[in-house]
Amino acid sequence: MIDELDVIADLNAEDDDGLGWSTLADARDATRVRPGAMLLVGNESAAAVVRIVAVDDDGQIHFSILPGSVAKNRHLFGPRTTA
Amino acid sequence: MSLTRMTVPTRSPAHASCPVCGVRPVKQRFVRQSDELGDDEEIALRGGRLAAAIVRADAQRMHDVYGTFGISVFALRGATIDELAQQAPLVRFAELTVVTVGTLRGVGVRLEPPGGTVVTSPWCSTTWMTAPMRCCRVVIGSGPTRIMRNDVAGGGRT
To answer: Which one of B65, B88, B117 has the shortest CB-CB distance to A58?
Structure first.
């Protein structure tokens, strides 16, 4: 699972609006991180399919966690190659 | 409910700094004032174990954006562990770490309730007062820290 992650993030972390967040520096391919994109986000502890809500000028990414399992939402982010 | 903006200047080569003073601007977080957690009656909940490598990476990420080392925890306020475990994001974790507020404060950690969310928000962010690695070891070793399985099927974790 860790090799599939688009963005390394701590799913415990929430911003002031209650959204999850990470940074572009933790993205495997920063060009894929744009508002509206569905990505697989997480770390060794947990992962989730999320919808990117915003990307700030300083590289902070804000996202909302989709309900349901990764398996259930896998079709939303499509196939990818592992690193 | 009044809100306070916090500014913590810091230095980091990862972002553009002031060419004169070398200080990098960081984002400000809202913090709820007069909203304290009790040491004994309330506990903090975090998805996953307090593994050193993960905590260090998470704390560094917060430092990169907000200029202060910290990780997020959820405070158990007006809800049971099972209730929080069924909700995102904790439903995503197979294991939860449970620790009392007093334990965290006892090792020099400051608990800051975020002010931008609704007043009834069950979570608060934890800010390490010192280096994250040192605090991580102390928290794990000082107890009472408990690891519990999240058996709630909820949204599923696979």
So the answer is: B65
